[in-house]
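Hi all, a correction to my earlier message: I attached the wrong file for Pyridoxamine 5'-phosphate oxidase N-terminal domain-containing protein. Here's the right sequence:
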Amino acid sequence: MTEQIKNKICEYLANHYYLNLATVSPDGRPMAHTMAYVSEREIVYLATNKNTRKVQNIMQNPQVAFTVDEDDPDWFDMKALQVEGKATIVASEEELREVGEIMAAKFPVIADLPPDPDTIMIKIEPAVVYYLDYSIEFGRRESVNF
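and the right structure:
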């Protein structure tokens, strides 16, 4: 059953475009950031400017959370992911190149953007993922550890 849920989670990530990333500032204030992302199975990648608050927060505390969900008014058909994990800055040139190709395939508009030396890639590896599927039963939530 766990593998089946993991596959559903990976499929859900692959078929969505935006997530809501939660970080904590150095003085303990929670912050939410809407971000475009790509995924490689359960691992999520985000491109952002190295001088953003989210990067500053991650450098102080790499523990993050994010949600991916539908914008559907029918509560009884809701599906979503709630993810807790660890964020790191991608340093490997090979990984950056591979993720860049995945990102360009998912978001073709970036092919026309000039390179930005201040852009970095954040990698989020999940620790636990909650898969919500209210179409099965209202309030249904299954968890998987990675």
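Sorry for the mix-up. The radius of gyration is 16 Å.
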